[in-house]
Amino acid sequence: MSLQQIVFGVLSIISIISALGVILSKNPVTSVLCLIVTFFTIAGHYIMLNAQFLAVVHIIVYAGAIMVLFLFVIMLMNLNAEIEPQKRNWLKYAGAISGGALLLVLLGALREADVTPLQSGSTDIGLISNLGKTLFNQYVVPFEVSSILFLSAMVGAVVIGKKEA
Amino acid sequence: MPVQYYIFLSIVLFCIGVMGVLMRRNAIIIFMCIELMLNAVNLLLVAFSKMWADAGRVDAGGAQIFVFFIMVVAAAEVAAGLAIIVMIYRNSQSVDINIMNRLKN
Q1: Is A3-126 CATH 1.10.357.10?
Q2: ipTM value for the complex
Q3: N or C, fewer C-beta in 10 Å, chain B?
Q4: Could you read off the pLDDT of A70-109 as tens digits, one per residue?
Q5: Dist CA A23 CA A21 (whole Å)
């Protein structure tokens, strides 16, 4: 068992446990903290896959921006465990069972997938210079469109969040 | 190391996200589960990008560009969605999604 597989196993176990913590914890703040742990382990996976630029962007965007937004919103509203209604327990079991069935189907379908194994050597495809060349040579138009998307999302959030006149 | 490991990890994370969306009533937690599903797909795309790069393809960076755009769209979605949730909370003092079926009247 190589070092790479050991690191992969540890990261995977942490990320799966903390992802379960997201959906099972009663307190929303605990969910957000578990989600931050999951995001950091996914960033570790990106580094192992030689996607250094994506790992940094992932930490900045998700752990930095999105999670702060979530925490801010949760602290803004006065949520606690008894606000979430506990009635209709069978709906919870139905959700768990159908999610588990989807898991089994996908695992069974892809168990025999024939793909070539990853080599342990590093590639430079995920470095920022190569990604930047790809981004600005082939994907300039989506890049500019995404800036319009961001602008409209910001303006939309401000307009929605304003008190109705 | 086989790519199957990453495929299995992505499937598990995605299904945990699906379970969370189906099980929880809190709209914010449903949002976080959507983020989890997006991240599972991102991880799979990055693993396939590494696989293509190992195979000597020069265009393997395209998958990572897609991950970049998914992150951009997720950030925009969170900004708008949390604004909507805050407004629902202000109007009804709750983020329970069962309350939102009043939209149909």
Answers
A1: no
A2: 0.90
A3: C
A4: 888 888 887 665 555 666 788 888 989 999 999 999 999 9
A5: 6
Interchain CB distance below 8 Å, B1 and A139: no
At A18, is the secondary structure helix, strand, or coil? helix
Residues of chain A positioned with their CB less than 8 A from the CB of B28? 28, 70, 73-74, 79
Label residue A138 exposed, middle or buried (CB < 10 Å: 0-12, 13-18, 19+): middle
Is residue A86 classed as helix, strand or coil in its secondary structure? Answer: coil
Rounded Cα gap, residues B100 and B105, in angstroms = 10
With respect to CATH, is domain B3-100 assigned 1.10.287.3510?
yes
Q: Is A101 on the interface with B (CB under 8 A)?
A: no
**How many Å lie between the alpha carbon of B104 and the closest alpha carbon of chain A?**
20
